Every structure is written in structure tokens, then in C-alpha cells.
């Protein structure tokens, strides 16, 4: 690759140079060439050159690029290649670590210190802060609550140098009020929505006396008062009080009635928002004086806690990343240390300089006062404010280099890299037009190396289709979730259309065009929140996707499953952990089965047993078992192994015994699930280092959760799938097609307990007697500054997202106003980009269904039978249900469906109370009604008449007397199913069952009565039909055939054979007829029936 003129100017500059490198302008290639220039022209050794980036990955890439350059162009210089391996090409944190290691005394750190990684640092700090708070003197807590200090101090400790300087800054809040009011007014009057609305007020007028005309004049008067800064608080309040009710279109002969109402509504909304922000109506009050009083106390607490933490770190010989910067700066404050590095390092190259924080800027200044400096950055891509990065640091260094008068012996210059090798001309021009008014002084027009677009619009070549914007037209629908589904479906349809039409894209490797692939596409969002929905939507359209990472690993289903297993192994009495494990893919026990288990568990008088103790004592065969698979035995084995195996090995054993990863590999989103499983395994492996005890790992996991530490999920390689990731994660990457969605999602309202700034001071929010938060003037000022920084960074974040695209860019939002879209709107207008509407459809009412994983290729046995039921226990009456209709049996006993309609429910209530009355000899209606107060008197009377039939019918007389037992419980096992039942009457040689059925159908109950007779070894079985009344006795030889039939039915249940008996007599009285797809339907005088058996 040949350097451009701009790259040559930067790479071959004889002195210091600040390189403003736009997106895709080849800065890494230029940096390698700059390093080579120092080696060859300046004659520096690699050991005299420092190259810094902000990630280890970027540092490794830069070292590789430099190594390749030297190998190709100086193949005989083995000395340079050897020195390159020891050269300081690293992150800034690694550079700070080296300074502290080489000068520990000057830095004030132990010589053998260890650097805590981000995870360990947060856990350690959370623990030590609790200890530090307990050491503070009691008088501090007389002024500041413990809970408040617990919120404030972590913010201050995270940036101790800035916090200390802020405490030393004193600002009179009265001086801020006028500045704040003026700034707020300027921002309000400059708002594009405000300006459009005020212009509308002067475009139309109604007739005198019309209410809306009066509202228009009131609004104009208020707007003028704000322009003149005349009683702005009253003007805002007057705007919010305008009544838009009434008025008549007839009194607006030239039109504008609706437009004026909408304009005033916009002004009211903006005025109300400004009042709530409290910037214009600021005044010195009680809480400003209170802040002044508590700041010295808060400073005392900060200094004592800071010293406590420093002492604890010295004792443990530990440093975190923030410490490295602080102590490196301290070491460099010694002249002899500065001189050491001035002589040692002759040139510095710092990449991504826009992400530098002020402390890093200071220690770089002390390091390279006499060296040649090359900084590379782009203020438009400064997006790490949450890591304390400050774009002003880069801007000040650019000015410093440009105005250098020879401090380093060689003058400096600024070079702009503005030729984009990524994006084609048509698209880059539109991006330029959008961001020119948005970024202001930061903006840099990019020119495209590729002048031709990869395709044209065949229908209308004059219409540019390289940058499109869409919002969901919600209309009166007030359901944001439905709108987001509509947005997701539009994205999916758009990408699917590109793939089906084989839209051409530019191939960087060949320099030609080829059809687009899923791997050429990326969806980049500000947060991870919407990406899962987009992934499911694309997957439902058959488009492969990969959620590359993001979110908190501990919030994933796989991490929760594995963590629950470790918690149970650490403490078998943890019932919640055990149930979580049982219902997870480890064992896949259904909630229905777990409920059945909970009702059947043994109880021991006087002892509060855990689930684990109870299920071990349970003696019922088949309990928590499947063929060759016992949950209890597996858990017993793991508990036995916990004393000899580390937690990672325990998880591996559990996976081998249960097939956990095989299960999740066949669920939607399998690659992401497997990556999260591996990620949790890696986390556990890290936590068990030094102490591989399961109790220790569980304790540390709890500490991580308590400290609210976010564990990064493992990234996934996209391969040939659409990439879903955040804009921050996409920094430095590119794709032919980029979608930037979710542009109207609001950020959560968050007011931290403290704001601090070295230039302004420290301010905390306070509470009144009602517990309501109150904001002193300085707090409002600093909050406003933070809001400005966040809005400016949001625009830069959008710039980063837009410039990831090579060929096509699509913007989407779930609503027409809000958040990023509002910030972006002036730029879209400047570029003449219209925002199209996405219509809502009925399809958007339903969440997308992710497809099942594809079947494996190759020969494999085909499953043609039924899937087993997994049942191990049933009531005896379930046999009658299966005999009537297996599908009805499935609805009731497998699915647990209650059925539809009230008829069957009432009949069951009547049958239950008849049995209750006969069992307890109840014949009084008042006593009977106490068992079910929902029944009407007529129904109670019906029950008593059925009971009377038993008492009086002559055929029943032999069974009312003699040696009989009522309500006898039985258990009878057939194959692997245990049947439980209650025999209404048990005699010496018979069993008898009461029936309150309307129709006499003894053949439907033959299996039930056979089980009763077989379980009690009684030769005879009877049914007493109470409505006729009638006594039915089963012939003895008949029962022999029924026994074989029962065993056959049990086999079908175990196999999962639930084919419907869709007969008219069954379906007409079935409580599931309305939801059963096999139920018969009447068509005229005919019936549509499925496989009638007669």
C-alpha cells in the first residue's frame, strides 16, 4: 500500500506531530511507517521509542505491523527485530506499571506490588470500603448519613486526584446563577423545535375573540420575554398555563388552527421540561448553605478513607489501574526520574489520544518534555467519557504541539488524514452533511478513496438509497414494545430483501463487487438492551445472527444454572438453588412435576427438613428418574466429589452426567448459550485460583454480585452471520451494511449522589425532611455540565456508528421523537434525508418465534415413535380419562389444563360433595353447604337426593351393612407408573364405587374398578349409579381381559400415545372441545370426524 500525501506528511515529519485521523483513513499503517522513520532516519533503537495504545489487542497488532515492516524492508537487521520484542509497545497502563516497577521508592509503592485486574479490584474495593466506613469518627456521621457516604465515596475514590483538586476549589454559587440562567435561555431559544414552533406563531393568525388566537398572543408575549431575559421564570410558567381547549377553525379563515395548537403544545412541553430542570429559576437556599457546611466534613471522610485504602493496599502490596496512574505521576514529579526517562526514550507515539484522561495527559507531559511526540486521534470519536476520558485533553495537546516554539528542539505541526479508504463517496458525503452542523468545530470533512458506489437504484437512479432513516408510525397506539417489534421486523425484512436480491457490496480483498452475505451486516446499538429482540426477529426470518457479547455474564441463563448448582453443592440445604437446578437443563424437571413432588414429600414431625433431605427419604420408585438417569443419584455423586474436585471439574462432571451442553446446543441461540457456559467456566477457574474449594468460589461469586460487578461475556466470531453489538464494541471495525437502531430509547434518569470537577468543586444532592432530593446551585451547575458532555458524546457516538459502514447505512427508531433521533434531526434536515414511516401491522402484536436449530447432516436413526410422557404417578381415575379419549387425558394430566366452560366443573363439585356426605353421614343441607358455599340451594338439594337414593334403594342394602370400610386409600404399581386411588366402599369380597353420572357407562370405568379390585385382591367390583338408581356388577371373567387392557394402556401412556378419540359422544361433553384441534365439527346434517372407531 502506498502512502497518501497526508500520510507521508505525518509519517515523515521531522518534529512532533498531531495527527487528526478520521474514520477509515489508515492511521495504523501510518503509525507503523512513523515508527520505521524513527528507526531509519532518526536512527533510534526500538528501545528508545515508546508506542502506546489503549488496548492490549491494539498494542499486539501495532507490534506485529512494525515487525512485518522491518522484516520486509530491513531483512538483515536482526538486531532491530530482537530489540522490537523488548520495545515498549503497550497500553498506557502497562507504561505506568513499568515506571512504578522501575522507581518504586519515588512512586511510593512496594517494590513487589501486584496489579489487580478490574474484577478483583472491584471486589477488593467493595470489601475495604465497608471496613473504611466503620473506621470513620462518629462526628462525621452526625452530619452525613452512613448510607449517603456509602454512595458518595466510591465516586470520589475512582478518580482521587480530580476529587482532591475539586475539594480545594471554592466557587460562590451566586456567581453561577446568572451564568446558568443565560446558558439555559440560550440553549432553549436555540432548540430547533422551539425555533420552528416560534416561527409558526407568526405565520398564522385567527380572528379576535377566538381562544386559540388569544393563546397564540400569550405565547408570543412569553417568547419575547424570554428573548429579552425579562422575568424568564414567569414567562416559562405563563407558557405552561396556556389553555388549548376551545377555539374554532371557522375563526381561522387563512388556516393554521391546527398548526398553531401544535406549535404552542411544543412550546409548553419544552417550557415545562426547562422548569423541571431548575436552571432558570435558580436561587440560593437552605441547601446551598448546608452544602457549604458539610463539604469540609465530606473532605475529611474522603481523605481518611483514601488513606485507609492506600494503607491496606501497601500492606497487601496491591495496586489497581487508577493507582498506577496516580503513582506513576508521583514518581515523575521527581526530577531525577524525569531525567532518567528523558535520556532513555527519544520518541513517543500515542494512538487513540482522544480517549486520554487528564491524569494520563499529565504523566505523558512529564515523560516526553524532550522527546519527539506523535499523537494520533480524532476528537469526533471520543466516546469513553464514562472511563474519565476527556476530549479536551487531545485538543489541548494539538494546540500545544502546533504552537511549540522549539521546546523539544524541533517544531510541531498538525496533519489531518481525511481520505477514507472505507466508505464510498456518495455515502461519505451524506455523513459529512449530517455531522457538519452537529459537531461544529470538531467536524472534519472526509473524502472518499472509492468514488463509485457498489450499486444504483434501478427504479430511480436519482434517488440515493445508501443512507435511509425510518421511524415506526405508532399513531394512537401507545405500546412501545409493539413498536419495537415493528422496528425489528422492518430491519429483518430489509436485510432479507438484500440477501434475496443479492445486493452487490464492495470486497476489500479483491477490490471488486460480490453479492452481500449475512456476515457483511451489523446492527449497532447504543446499549445491549434491544439487541436480543433484533436477534430473535432476524432468526425468525431465517437470517443467521450472532450476539457478539455484552451485558453481564451473571445475568445469563447458563451462568445462573451453573451458579445454582455450585450453591447447592456448597450448601445442600439451599432449597431455592436445588429447585433451580432441577428445573434447569441439567435435569429439565417440569414445574408441574416439581409441584407434584412438593405435595408428596415426606414430613417428619418436629423437624424442618430441606428439600434435599426429603427427596432422599422419598421411597416411591421412579421419583425424579428417567431410564438410566436419576437426579438424586447424580447429585449424590457430585456432593461426594466436592471435597476432592475443584468447582470447574464439578461443573464438567455435571455436564457429562446430564448432557447439559448437549441440551443447550439444541436450543435457539445455541452458540451464544455455549459461549456463556464457557465464559462462566472461565470465571470460576479464575476465582478458584489459590483456593479451589467450592465454598470459596460461591462466596466470591456472592461478593461479585453484591458489588454489582459486571462480568463481560465472551465474544463470538460472526463467521457468516449478522453481527449484533454495541457501538462502543464496534469501534475500529467495519461492515458493508450497518443498521443503527433504537434511536429514540431514552436513557434512564439517574442523578448521582455527587458531582465533582477540578475547575468548579464538589456538590452533593441532599434530602429534605420528607426524603425528597434537593439540588444546591453548584450541583445543578455540574449536572448541567455533565448533560452537555453526555449530549456531545452521544453525537460523537453516532458519528462512530455511521462511519462503520462501507456501502449502506440504515437508521431506525421505534417512535418519531426522542433521545438520539432528536439530537440527530438537525443533521438529517441539513442533508435532506427524509424519515420514512414503518406501519404497524397485526404481526407486530406477537413476539418473533426463534427457529429450532437445524438438523445434523448425515445418516442418523429416525425417531418415528412417540415421545415419552415422563410420568411416574397418576390417580386411578386417569385410566377412565384415557379410555374415554387419550387427548383429553393429555390435556388434564400432562398439560394440567383446567378445561373450558362451567358445566363439568359443577358436575365435579356435586360428585365430590356426594362422596363427602356418604363418607361422613351428612344429611343436613346447612352442614353440607359449609363444604362448598358456592353451590346454590337447588344444587345442595340435588346432592341430598342422590345421597337419599343410596340410603333407600333396595339393591344397595347388602352393601350398606356388614364389615365395610369407607374411603380406603390404595397404591398399585403397573410398569413404572404408581396409581393412587380411594375406594368408596371396601367389603370382604367386593369393591364399590359411587357414580353421579348422568349417563350409565360402566365400560368407561372398567379399568378404574379393575385396579381397585386387583390392588385389594377382591373378586367382585360394583358401581352404584345414584341418579337412576342402579347397581352394576362386573362379570368375573370379564375382568381377566380388562387386566391385559390396563397394562396395554399404561404402555401407551409411557410412550406418549395421545391420539384423540374424536367421537360425537366424547366431544359433545368434553371440557377441551373448544381448544382441541381434533374435535368433530357439524356441517349441516353431517359431521366431520377423525378416525371414528365404529
Automatic annotation (TrEMBL):
Residues 1-424 form the UvrD-like helicase ATP-binding domain. GO terms for molecular function: 3'-5' DNA helicase activity; ATP binding; DNA binding; exonuclease activity. Residues 425-732 form the UvrD-like helicase C-terminal domain. Keywords: ATP-binding, DNA damage, DNA repair, DNA-binding, Exonuclease, Helicase, Hydrolase, Isomerase, Nuclease, Nucleotide-binding. ATP binds at residues 21-28. GO terms for cellular component: cytosol; DNA helicase complex. InterPro entries: DNA_helicase_UvrD-like_C, DNA_helicase_UvrD/REP, P-loop_NTPase, PDDEXK-like_dom_sf, PDDEXK_AddAB-type, UvrD-like_ATP-bd. It catalyses: ATP + H2O = ADP + phosphate + H(+); Couples ATP hydrolysis with the unwinding of duplex DNA by translocating in the 3'-5' direction. The keyword Nucleotide-binding applies. This is DNA 3'-5' helicase. It comes from Planktothricoides raciborskii GIHE-MW2.
Amino acid at each position: 500500500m502506498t502512502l497518501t500525501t497526508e500520510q507521508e506528511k505525518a509519517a515523515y515529519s521531522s518534529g512532533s506531530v498531531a495527527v487528526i485521523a478520521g474514520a477509515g483513513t489508515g492511521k495504523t499503517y501510518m503509525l507503523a511507517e512513523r515508527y520505521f522513520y524513527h528507526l531509519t532516519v532518526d536512527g533510534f533503537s526500538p528501545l528508545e521509542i515508546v508506542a502506546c495504545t489503549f488496548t492490549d489487542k491494539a498494542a499486539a497488532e501495532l507490534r506485529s505491523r512494525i515487525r512485518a515492516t522491518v522484516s520486509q524492508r530491513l531483512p538483515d537487521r536482526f538486531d532491530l527485530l530482537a530489540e522490537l520484542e523488548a520495545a515498549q509497545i503497550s497500553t498506557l497502563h502497562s507504561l505506568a506499571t513499568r515506571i512504578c516497577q522501575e522507581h518504586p521508592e519515588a512512586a511510593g509503592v512496594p517494590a513487589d506490588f501486584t496489579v489487580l485486574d478490574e474484577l478483583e479490584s472491584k471486589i477488593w474495593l467493595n470489601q475495604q470500603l465497608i471496613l473504611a466506613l466503620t473506621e470513620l469518627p462518629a462526628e462525621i456521621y452526625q452530619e452525613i448519613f452512613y448510607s449517603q457516604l456509602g454512595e458518595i465515596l466510591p465516586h470520589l475514590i475512582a478518580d482521587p486526584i480530580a476529587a482532591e483538586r475539586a475539594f480545594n476549589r471554592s466557587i460562590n454559587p451566586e456567581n453561577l446563577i446568572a451564568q446558568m440562567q443565560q446558558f439555559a435561555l440560550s440553549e432553549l431559544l436555540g432548540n430547533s423545535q422551539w425555533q420552528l414552533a416560534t416561527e409558526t406563531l407568526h405565520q398564522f393568525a385567527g380572528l379576535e375573540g377566538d381562544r386559540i388566537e388569544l393563546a397564540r398572543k400569550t405565547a408570543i408575549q412569553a417568547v419575547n420575554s424570554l428573548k429579552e431575559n425579562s422575568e424568564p421564570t414567569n414567562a416559562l410558567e405563563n407558557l405552561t398555563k396556556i389553555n388549548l381547549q376551545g377555539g374554532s377553525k371557522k375563526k381561522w379563515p387563512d388556516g393554521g388552527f391546527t398548526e398553531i395548537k401544535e406549535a404552542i403544545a411544543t412550546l409548553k412541553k419544552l417550557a415545562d421540561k426547562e422548569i423541571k430542570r431548575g436552571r432558570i429559576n435558580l436561587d440560593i437556599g437552605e441547601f446551598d448553605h448546608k452544602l457549604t457546611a458539610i463539604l469540609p466534613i465530606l473532605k475529611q471522610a474522603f481523605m481518611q478513607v483514601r488513606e485507609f485504602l492506600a494503607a491496606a493496599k501497601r500492606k497487601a502490596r496491591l495496586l489497581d489501574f487508577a493507582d498506577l496512574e496516580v503513582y506513576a505521576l508521583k514518581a515523575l514529579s521527581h526530577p531525577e526520574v524525569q531525567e532518567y526517562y528523558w535520556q532513555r526514550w527519544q520518541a513517543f507515539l500515542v494512538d487513540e489520544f482522544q480517549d486520554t484522561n487528564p491524569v494520563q495527559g499529565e504523566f505523558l507531559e512529564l515523560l516526553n518534555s524532550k522527546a519527539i511526540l506523535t499523537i494520533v486521534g480524532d476528537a469526533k470519536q471520543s466516546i469513553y467519557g464514562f472511563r474519565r476520558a476527556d476530549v479536551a485533553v487531545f485538543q489541548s495537546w494539538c494546540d500545544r504541539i502546533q504552537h511549540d516554539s522549539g521546546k523539544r528542539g524541533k517544531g510541531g505541526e498538525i496533519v489531518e488524514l481525511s481520505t477514507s479508504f472505507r466508505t464510498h463517496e456518495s455515502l461519505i458525503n451524506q455523513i459529512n452533511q449530517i455531522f457538519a452542523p452537529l459537531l461544529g468545530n470538531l467536524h472534519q470533512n472526509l473524502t472518499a478513496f472509492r468514488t463509485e458506489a457498489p450499486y444504483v437504484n434501478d427504479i430511480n437512479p436519482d434517488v440515493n438509497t445508501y443512507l435511509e432513516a425510518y421511524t415506526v408510525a405508532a399513531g394512537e397506539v401507545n405500546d412501545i414494545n409493539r413498536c419495537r417489534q415493528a422496528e425489528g421486523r422492518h430491519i429483518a425484512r430489509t436485510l432479507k430483501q438484500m440477501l434475496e436480491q443479492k445486493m452487490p457490496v464492495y470486497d476489500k480483498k479483491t477490490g471488486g463487487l460480490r453479492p452481500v452475505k449475512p456476515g457483511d451486516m451489523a446492527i449497532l446499538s447504543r446499549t445491549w438492551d434491544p439487541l436480543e429482540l433484533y436477534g430473535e426477529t432476524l432468526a425468525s426470518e431465517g437470517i443467521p445472527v450472532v450476539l457478539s457479547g455484552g451485558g453481564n455474564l451473571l445475568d445469563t441463563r447458563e451462568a445462573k444454572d451453573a451458579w445454582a448448582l455450585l450453591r447447592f453443592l456448597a450448601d445442600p440445604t439451599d432449597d431455592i438453588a436445588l429447585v433451580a437446578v432441577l428445573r434447569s437443563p441439567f435435569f429439565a424437571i417440569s414445574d408441574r412435576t416439581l409441584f407434584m413432588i412438593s405435595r408428596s414429600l415426606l414430613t417428619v414431625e418436629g423437624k424442618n427438613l430441606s428439600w434435599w433431605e426429603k427427596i432422599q427419604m422419598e421411597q416411591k420408585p421412579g421419583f425424579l428418574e428417567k431410564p438410566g438417569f436419576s437426579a438424586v443419584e447424580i447429585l449424590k455423586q457430585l456432593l461426594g466429589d466436592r471435597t476432592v474436585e475443584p468447582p470447574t471439574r464439578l461443573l464438567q462432571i455435571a455436564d457429562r452426567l446430564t448432557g447439559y451442553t448437549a441440551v443447550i446446543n439444541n436450543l435457539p441461540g445455541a452458540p451464544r448459550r455455549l459461549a456463556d457456559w464457557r465464559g462462566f467456566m472461565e470465571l470460576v477457574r479464575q476465582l478458584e485460583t489459590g483456593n479451589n474449594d467450592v465454598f470459596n468460589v460461591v462466596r466470591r461469586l456472592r461478593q461479585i454480585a453484591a458489588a454489582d460487578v459486571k462480568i463481560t461475556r465472551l465474544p463470538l466470531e460472526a463467521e457468516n452471520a449478522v453481527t449484533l453489538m454495541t457501538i462502543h464494541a464496534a469501534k475500529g471495525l467495519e461492515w458493508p451494511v450497518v443498521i443503527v437502531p433504537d434511536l429514540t430509547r431514552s436513557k434512564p434518569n439517574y442523578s448521582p449522589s455527587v458531582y465533582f470537577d477540578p475547575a468548579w468543586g464538589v456538590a452533593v444532592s441532599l434530602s429534605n425532611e420528607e426524603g425528597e432530593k434537593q439540588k444546591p446551585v453548584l450541583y445543578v451547575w455540574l449536572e448541567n455540565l455533565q448533560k452537555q458532555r453526555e449530549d456531545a458524546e452521544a453525537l460523537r457516538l453516532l458519528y462512530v456508528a455511521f462511519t462503520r459502514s462501507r456501502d449502506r447505512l440504515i437508521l431506525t427508531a421505534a417512535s418519531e421523537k426522542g433521545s438520539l433521533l432528536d439530537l440527530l434531526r438537525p443533521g438529517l434536515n441539513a442533508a435532506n434525508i427524509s424519515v420514512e414511516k414503518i406501519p404497524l401491522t397485526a404481526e407486530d402484536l406477537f413476539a418473533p418465534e426463534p427457529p429450532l436449530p437445524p438438523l445434523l447432516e448425515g445418516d442418523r436413526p429416525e425417531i418415528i415413535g412417540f415421545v415419552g410422557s415422563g410420568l411416574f404417578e397418576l390417580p386411578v381415575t386417569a385410566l377412565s380419562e384415557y379410555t374415554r379419549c387419550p387427548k383429553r387425558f393429555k390435556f388434564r394430566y400432562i398439560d394440567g389444563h383446567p378445561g373450558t366452560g362451567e358445566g363439568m366443573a359443577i358436575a365435579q363439585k356435586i360428585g365430590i360433595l356426594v362422596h363427602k356426605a356418604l363418607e361422613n353421614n351428612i344429611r343436613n343441607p346447612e352442614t353440607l353447604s359449609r363444604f362448598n358455599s358456592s353451590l346454590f340451594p337447588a344444587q345442595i338439594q340435588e346432592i341430598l337426593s342422590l345421597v337419599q337414593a343410596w340410603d333407600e334403594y333396595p339393591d344397595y342394602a347388602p352393601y350398606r351393612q356388614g364389615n365395610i370400610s369407607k374411603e380406603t386409600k390404595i397404591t398399585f404399581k403397573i410398569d413404572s407408573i404408581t396409581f393412587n386411588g380411594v375406594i368408596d366402599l371396601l367389603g370382604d369380597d367386593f369393591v364399590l364405587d359411587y357414580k353421579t353420572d348422568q349417563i350409565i357407562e360402566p365400560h368407561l370405568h372398567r379399568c378404574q374398578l379393575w385396579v381397585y379390585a386387583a390392588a385389594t385382591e377382591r373378586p367382585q367390583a360394583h358401581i352404584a349409579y345414584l341418579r337412576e338408581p342402579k347397581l352394576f356388577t362386573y362379570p368375573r371373567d370379564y375382568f381377566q381381559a380388562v387386566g391385559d387392557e390396563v397394562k396395554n394402556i399404561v404402555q401407551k401412556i409411557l410412550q406418549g400415545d395421545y391420539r384423540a378419540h374424536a367421537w360425537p359422544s366424547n366431544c359433545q361433553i368434553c371440557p377441551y372441545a373448544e381448544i382441541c384441534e381434533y374435535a368433530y365439527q357439524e356441517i349441516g346434517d353431517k359431521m366431520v370426524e377423525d378416525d371414528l372407531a365404529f
